[in-house]
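LOG
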Amino acid sequence: MNLKTNFKYYFFTKAVSNIVAALILISIVLASYIIASHKIHYLAGLRSSSIVEAYDVRARKIGTLFSIVDVFVNESETHILIYSYGFEKFKIKTIISDNSTSDFIVRNTLTEQITESIEKGLYEIIVSNIPNSRLVLITDKGDFYEIKIKNWY
């Protein structure tokens, strides 16, 4: 009887401990898999949203494309001729001249009327002072365009 009770004791304690150990290992592996899969899905979603966001920013910038045709200066003003060829209207919100904001007006060269929004066509931006080195145009969409004046006159 003594051998039989020792056998039952040895069998059940070793079997239970093996099963418990296996369950613990399985739960650790599953928990690690769940945590890792959530992190991977989160990072993949973050990356795909940043790619979509980058494409949106690029499409917006393509919509507001313009070229500088000429820059000339008279006694107290700087005149910038731009040709807008983008497909979206935009406004110039601020012009920074040598690290300070400048007063300006935007005029359509065909109609000779002062306007706020720039569409396709030729426009003249008249800045009320003469910068020493550069002008920075900031649009209402948050885009920055730098014009180095020394290269123009």
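LOG (cont.) second protein
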Amino acid sequence: MMSLVTMMMLMLTACSSKHEGFTGKFTDQFGNKFELRKDYTASITFVGYDQPTEVTWSDGEQHDRTYATISFNGNPNYYYLRDGVLYGSESAMVNGHPAIQIEWED
């Protein structure tokens, strides 16, 4: 009985601390604002700029990748979003560093 209660508490904690999916609004540790929409369009508003830059994002052709890529400046893989952090390259994502911390809006 005790292990069942413990397991349920761990599941609730894991679910409440992780943002579900890739869509939504978040701000990175530098103050840049991102919005990823369900239609795979996105916007980035960089610090010091009033107008957002319209871009796209992807989670793979079959929508089954464990990470999303966000385009910028003509590069479809400019940013990588995985496990609640942002990366500036695929190698940084694979190695887990350096990660750019983000905060999701509710």
